[in-house]
């Protein structure tokens, strides 16, 4: 099913992206500030075991390849077509702002804020990709690659919930000592 620009779904409109970025930035800053001040009973740093830390190093490289480079290639491939160009541009803007937020807030506030930022942006990104799949009739190869990107971010959300969130809870320190 093809949609024209007036039918473009909400997650891939510029206003929606800017509003999401503003809200996510405020929530992330508030979270980081509350953790830094000790008002939230969460750890300011993630407590990963050495195995988890090694996994995270590989995961970040996969995220760069699947979540950033592949959509960037797709933006270039579909540059002449306005609907996919807008979709990939909105997607990549959200990625860039997420990375900038994680880098700056983890330095200024606390390292564990990247868990909140990553979760907010991953949820939004899944919504963007789901809608993006329905915006345009992609050739089969590109459709398959877009599904790969979506499935990666679903896996990322699972990783955040199962590994990153437990690493910022106070009781996870005892668990990571036992695991290590």
Structural description of this entry:
The structure is a single chain. By secondary structure, the chain is mainly α. It has helices at residues 14-36, 50-77, 82-108, 113-133, 140-168, 172-179. Helix 2 (50-77) packs antiparallel against helix 3 (82-108) and helix 2 (50-77) packs antiparallel against helix 5 (140-168). It is globular.
Describe the SSE topology.
Elements (H helix, E strand, L loop, with lengths): L13 H23 L13 H28 L4 H27 L4 H21 L6 H29 L3 H8 L1
Helix pairs in contact: 1-3, 1-4, 2-3, 2-5, 3-4, 4-5
Keywords: Membrane, Transmembrane, Transmembrane helix
Instruction: Work out the strand percent.
Output: under 5%
- Major sheet: size, sense and barrel closure? none
Unreliable sequence segments: 1-8
Question: How is the quaternary structure best described?
Answer: single chain
If you compute it from the alpha carbons, what radius of gyration comes out, rounded to the nearest whole angstrom? 18 Å
What share of residues is helical?
Answer: over 70%
Round the mean pLDDT to the nearest integer and report it: 91
Helical stretch tally: 6
Based on DSSP secondary structure assignment, what is the total number of beta strands?
Answer: 0
SS-based class: mainly alpha
Strand-and-helix sequence, N→C? HHHHHH
Which word captures the global form?
globular
Cα distance spanning the termini:
51 Å
């Amino acid at each position: 099913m093809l949609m024209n620009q007036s039918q473009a779904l909400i997650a891939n409109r510029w206003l929606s992206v800017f509003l999401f970025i503003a809200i996510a930035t405020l929530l992330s800053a508030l979270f980081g500030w509350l953790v830094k001040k000790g008002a939230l009973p969460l750890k300011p740093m993630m407590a990963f075991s050495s195995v988890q830390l090694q996994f995270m190093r590989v995961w970040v490289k996969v995220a760069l390849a699947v979540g950033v480079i592949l959509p960037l290639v797709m933006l270039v491939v579909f540059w002449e077509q306005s609907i996919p160009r807008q979709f990939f541009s909105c997607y990549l803007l959200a990625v860039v702002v997420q990375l900038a937020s994680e880098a700056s807030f983890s330095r200024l506030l606390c390292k564990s804020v990247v868990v909140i930022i990553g979760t907010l942006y991953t949820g939004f990104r899944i919504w963007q990709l789901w809608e993006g799949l329905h915006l345009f009739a992609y050739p089969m190869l590109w459709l398959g690659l877009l599904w790969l990107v979506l499935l990666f971010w679903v896996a990322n959300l699972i990783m955040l919930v199962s590994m990153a969130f437990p690493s910022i809870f106070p009781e996870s320190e005892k668990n990571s000592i036992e695991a290590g």
